[in-house]
Specification:
With 550 residues, the protein is of the alpha+beta class. β16, α14 (402-419) and β17 (422-428) form a beta-alpha-beta unit. Helix content is 29%, strand content 21%.
Length: 550
């Protein structure tokens, strides 16, 4: 998923219900599970669940994990991120210019769509152009800013034909970047940069990809059925260039909004993989497999809002020091996520090891520091002209769900106890919450971020002054300088040094207050389900080459 980048006000719902589901019973399994997956030598069927309907199956219009995780298995981009390893997709190889600005991709000859037509360089170019074209209104259009003229095209200032991507011939795609981006090949595995058939977009118009038959697929699977509020069915794509390595015949994805339903279906052998809900964490702690999902959940603050206290840096520091993240995850999250006050997931690759080891950084203790919290509160109160902390108040918006309510109530109680400030909790329907974020109609919001690609920039780009998802309205010239310096760094170490410096600046300024690095607890029978992978960035789960054995 890289897999992908997704703004996670949706994270609240993911945390509430668990992102996925499916597998056999922990520690022994059931007979029905073992028999149904392989169906006694017939079709090999893999089954899991998701928490809601994918909003769209149009790759360029997707910004939800529900859509993108499925699309990863339906489409093949120029490159593919397979558990952190960038591998060939539609392109079997590529060249990079010495200045790092021009990528030339050489397409394989056997890449075909599910209707038998060959995937051409023009299909790839059209997908890029469609992402950035203002007429598409793609929510992830800002990703195209990595291409020459990408920002200008997205703003409607330059025609889409001038975007930095061309097809000199049917088997060559040339991408010219606006800035050096060593993570660019990884970006190309995300749903936003997938090839697209212009003839079908023009044929179906606004109904393009609305049903399985109104699109074609060039990935390992094709969408055979999509029943809203019920299920999606994927079948093996016999035209996929690497079809011989695809072992599954069919994938059944149930839409289950009740957080307790998937685990019960897993226990009775009706699902092959399941994310363990918080309520069941203790029961499955020994059998469950813990994994990072790439997300960071945090409290986002509207720095252009009217709340004077939240615009005061000392007050924001008081709030951060006033949280015991360790107690928070124990009380509200069954200790599944990992407490963190960092923005960048430490598990990302660094110059020599993982980013967290190369750049150890713990800006706020996971148990909190009440003394420091009160010290910063005193400074803030002086600046605000307030003598009684109970006179300070703000509103905390969150996605309307019972489990999320419990999460924010823990934070509310900690701040009341440690600082004496008053927090009003504001439950908001998810669709409205997103609109409120985009429109700046909030004071503080419980949300988060899931990155598009396996690089610190995927987190840090959010907070550049002109960042496409800078909904905290944060601006710091020193931060922007570090991010710009990273773009022109001479080597990986120098580049990462600048990114680590940028992270320290944003964690000190606190336009967001980080709470946890997202982790999940999953169950599946590893003796029966082979080559099923989970990864911390992009598409969280990968069943492309999964096999089911007796």
């Amino acid at each position: 998923m890289k897999r992908r980048k997704i703004l996670c006000a949706a994270l609240a719902l993911t945390m509430a219900f668990g992102a996925l589901a499916g597998c056999s019973t922990p520690g022994g399994g059931t007979q029905s599970s073992a028999q149904s997956g392989a169906a006694a030598g017939s079709e090999k069927i893999f089954r899991f669940s998701i928490t809601g309907n994918p909003p769209t199956m149009d790759p360029q219009k997707s910004n939800s994990a529900l859509s993108i995780d499925v699309q990863y298995h339906l489409f093949d981009g120029l490159m593919r991120d397979d558990n952190g390893k960038v591998e060939p997709g539609v392109a079997e190889s590529y060249d990079v210019s010495d200045d790092g600005l021009t990528y030339t991709f050489h397409l394989r000859s056997d890449s075909k769509w599910s209707d038998g037509k060959t995937v051409t360089a023009e299909d790839c170019v059209y997908g890029f152009q469609r992402l950035v074209d203002p007429a598409t209104a793609a929510p992830m259009a800002y990703l195209g800013e990595v291409l020459k003229n990408g920002k200008e095209v997205a703003a409607g200032k330059v025609p889409v034909k001038d975007l930095g991507v061309t097809a000199p011939d049917d088997k060559t795609v040339v991408c010219v970047l606006s800035k050096p981006a060593p993570y660019f090949p990884t970006m190309l595995s995300s749903g936003s940069f997938l090839p697209c058939r212009k003839d079908l977009v023009e044929k179906y118009g606004k109904d393009f990809a609305a049903t399985p038959e109104k699109n074609v697929y060039n990935g390992p699977f094709q969408l055979a059925e999509w029943a809203q509020d019920d299920k999606l069915v994927l079948t093996k794509n016999e035209n996929f260039w690497n079809k011989d390595k695809v072992k599954l015949d069919r994938v059944e994805i149930s839409v289950l909004t009740d957080p307790n339903t998937p685990i019960g279906m897993y226990e009775t052998g009706k699902l092959d993989y399941v994310d363990v809900p918080v309520a069941a964490a203790d029961q499955y702690r020994e059998q469950g497999k813990m994994y990072y999902n790439g997300s960071v959940d945090y409290l986002q603050i509207n720095l252009k809002g009217e709340n004077a206290a939240l615009k005061n840096k000392d007050f924001r520091k008081a709030l951060s020091y006033g949280i015991s993240r360790k107690d928070y995850v124990a009380m509200a999250r069954a200790s599944i996520p990992e407490p963190t006050s960092r923005l960048v997931l430490p598990a990302l690759p660094g110059p020599t090891s993982i980013f967290g080891k190369d750049y150890p950084f713990d800006p706020y203790p996971e148990t909190g520091d009440t003394a420091k919290a009160k010290e910063y509160l005193k400074k803030a109160m002086s600046a605000l002209g307030v003598s009684d902390p109970s006179k300070i108040s703000f509103k905390l918006s969150y996605a309307e769900a019972e489990s999320v309510r419990k999460i924010v109530e823990v934070l509310q109680a900690q701040w009341k106890q440690n600082l004496g400030v008053n927090v009003t909790l504001v439950p908001v329907p998810y669709a409205v919450l997103s609109d409120d974020m985009f429109g700046g109609k909030y004071e503080m919001m419980y949300t988060g971020w899931t990155p598009d690609y396996d690089d610190p920039v995927s987190y840090l780009e959010l907070f550049q002054t002109d960042g496409g998802y800078n909904y905290s309205h944060y601006s710091n010239s020193d931060y922007d300088k570090e991010m710009k310096a990273a773009e022109t760094a001479k080597n990986t170490k120098e580049r990462m040094d600048h990114l680590a410096a940028a992270e320290k600046i944003v964690c000190d300024d606190l336009p967001i207050i980080s709470l946890t690095a997202g982790r999940g607890m999953a169950l599946w029978d590893e003796k029966r389900i082979k080559n099923f992978n989970l990864y911390h960035v992009g598409t969280i789960y990968n069943f492309i080459y999964t096999d089911i054995v007796s």
